[in-house]
Design brief:
The protein has 7 helices and 24 strands. The chain is α+β, with helices and mostly antiparallel strands. The N terminus is likely disordered.
Length: about 425
């Protein structure tokens, strides 16, 4: 229940295992199927369909309690060549398709923006597009797997230019900032969601001119004061005092290589504040009026919100910009993920962000010691002609937070499409944002 008293679970964190602790959305299939059970986090909670209540284990998803009902999305025009992506949508809509209240746990200080059923129907049909730097809703009957500029079919394989984006690598939990200030801050291990968003939004900057991923710089302070909570003790420390923060810009060589986008990553994590939000940052630093240390991470709901807020240029109707969420309960997840990547990467030239279990990623392998940690990556390429078909993703968790043999700073990683799906549906996967 929103606003109830909850005990926050303790997710294991270390320099060698970073990721996100995420509250999972409870949603219903647009086709009208009633969700009868949920598997989430490190366990599963059976859900009696007759009761209409979905209660997830509070040790894996803090305080999550929601109702489920069967609500079909508006009928789509016939598209024999393109089965609509089976989005999951929240319950409790009014007659106009607007969300009356959230039916899944959200941070009350960061309300999730409304996405109407009408907009979701257009999105599911692949008609929300980015054409020549402008948002466009393609006409009914349009084949979404056709390039909107050239008129050619979306290619069977492609990879976007990555020379700048592949070096978007998170700041480690200890070290020195660009001004030489030494710090120790476990919150920094939790920024993979902000890192993956930074990768995605760099491509938006190239397509639309905003946001300013390459030029964002500043002094960034953990937003405990803005949350109205006392600073944790023990908590962040640096040589200038814990509330001094650290300084980051568009490029730095603090880690011994040229890292990109750290100023924007910290802006997303600590300072960005969409309209209607009472707290800054897409990373959650407090819950129920209590400081968290380390921070909770960036839930997939906040990743979707952050991508839309920044891609829209902070527009009034930012909630219905481009991105929405598909959860692991999509029965056609393999088909829908490939289709979504072809639309976003192959047609519109922007990434898909996936929230996965690191146990399924090739650069996190360490035999039986491979961790199950929730983590965000940006999918920037695909090859449907390979055997098996593959995706290419960037990894913002560099060697400082993942020293396994397959993980190097600035690497691109190739994974079979089936393995990526498995990583999404594994113990702590959360879905994808497209």
């Amino acid at each position: 229940m929103v606003g109830s008293t909850r005990t926050l679970p303790k997710w294991p964190r270390s320099r060698a295992a970073t990721g996100l602790a995420v509250a999972v959305i409870v949603t219903v299939l647009g086709a009208g199927a009633l969700l009868a059970g949920v598997t989430s986090g490190r366990g599963s909670a059976p859900t009696p369909a007759a009761s209409g209540m979905i209660a997830l284990d509070p040790t894996t998803d803090p305080g999550l309690l929601a109702t489920a009902s069967s609500i079909p999305i508006p009928t789509l025009e016939p598209t024999p060549k393109f089965p609509p992506i089976e989005l999951f949508v929240p319950t409790n809509q009014d007659g106009t398709g607007k969300l009356i209240r959230p039916d899944f746990w959200v941070d009350q200080r960061r309300p999730i923006p409304v996405q109407s059923l009408d907009w979701l129907a257009v999105k599911a049909a692949g008609r929300v597009a980015l054409v020549n730097g402008a948002f466009t809703v393609l006409p009914k009957g349009t084949d979404p797997l056709v390039d909107t500029v050239t008129g050619s079919p979306v290619p069977d394989k492609t990879i976007m230019e990555t020379e700048w984006a592949r070096w978007i690598i998170e700041v480690p939990g200890t070290g020195r900032d660009e001004k030489g200030v030494s710090f120790s801050n476990n919150n920094y291990w939790e920024f993979c969601g902000d890192g993956a968003m930074t990768v995605a939004l760099w491509y938006w900057q190239q397509r639309t001119g905003h946001p300013n991923v390459t030029g964002m710089a500043g002094q960034f302070v953990d937003p405990y004061d803005a949350e109205g909570v006392a600073w944790p003790n023990p908590g962040p420390r640096n040589s200038k005092g814990m509330t001094y923060g650290t300084y980051w810009s568009g490029s730095d060589k603090v880690s011994g290589f040229e890292a990109h986008g750290r100023g924007f990553e910290f802006y997303l994590a600590m300072a960005a504040r969409p309209t209607g939000w009472l707290s800054p940052g897409f990373t959650v630093f407090a819950l129920d009026g209590k400081a968290l240390y380390p921070a909770l991470g960036t839930p997939i709901t906040n990743i979707g919100a952050g991508l839309n807020w920044e891609a829209s240029g902070h527009a009034i109707d930012w909630g219905e910009t481009y991105y929405t969420i598909v959860t692991p309960r999509d029965p056609n997840l393999a088909r829908d993920l490939t289709t979504a990547v072809m639309i976003d990467v192959g047609r519109d030239r922007v990434p898909v962000v996936a929230m996965v279990d690191t146990n399924g990623l090739p650069n996190w392998q360490n035999g039986t010691a491979t961790p199950h940690t929730r983590h965000a990556v940006a999918i920037v390429g695909y090859d449907n002609t390979a055997n098996p078909p593959t995706f290419t993703y960037t990894e913002t968790c560099g060697r400082d937070c993942n020293r396994r043999g397959g993980n190097m700073n600035g690497d691109l990683h190739v994974i079979s499409q089936a393995q990526m799906v498995n990583a999404i549906v594994d113990k702590v996967g959360s879905g994808f944002v497209w």
